[in-house]
Design a protein that fits this description.
Largest sheet: 6 strands, antiparallel
Number of domains: 2
Oligomer: single chain
Structural class: alpha+beta
Distance between the termini: 98 Å
Helix content: 10-25%
Number of helices: 1
Length: 155
């Protein structure tokens, strides 16, 4: 097989153009990722309800058999936030201003015994679980009122 100078250079030009197209696609992809990541970031918190002890991997049914799972949940809060995520230090109730100070500490132990049946019903495997839950929660709070007359009252 014989290559002429003309055919060899056209193949190189085609390969070079193909490389530029790939480079543009990669650059466009990186640019899109950068633009998407420039959005505002917001803090994510649980609020005052824990979503539960199950993890995302627990939504898949395992192979048939018996399983033991051990869940441990710890929740601590010492700030109260409004719907915008801003810290609330006081609550206004008419002419009375209540200063809020509290702390919640909760520890939960939840051992689970899981059984998955070997039979399929309507194409799906089913299982059952028993999850006794043992927990301890402490709550400390202090409310202080300011009446506007220069006196503070602890309740």
């Amino acid at each position: 097989m014989r290559f002429t100078l003309h055919s060899l250079s056209s193949q190189r030009l085609h390969a070079c153009a193909f490389g530029l197209k790939q480079g543009r696609k990669i650059l466009l992809g990186v640019l899109c990722l950068v633009l998407v990541s420039l959005g505002p970031a917001r803090a994510g918190e649980l609020g005052h309800f824990a979503p539960g002890v199950l993890n995302i991997r627990d939504f898949l049914v395992p192979d048939p058999g018996f399983y033991y799972l051990q869940y441990f949940v710890w929740y601590n809060a010492d700030t109260f936030r409004d719907r915008n995520g801003d810290k609330v230090n006081s609550i206004n109730a008419g002419p009375i201003n209540l200063n809020v100070d509290f702390e919640v500490d909760s520890v939960v132990l939840a051992p689970a015994l899981v059984w998955v049946s070997p039979w399929k019903i309507l194409g799906a495997r089913y299982g059952a679980q028993i999850v006794p839950t043992f927990g301890n929660t402490t709550f400390q709070s202090a409310l202080r009122t300011e009446t506007g007359f220069g006196e503070d009252t602890d309740e």
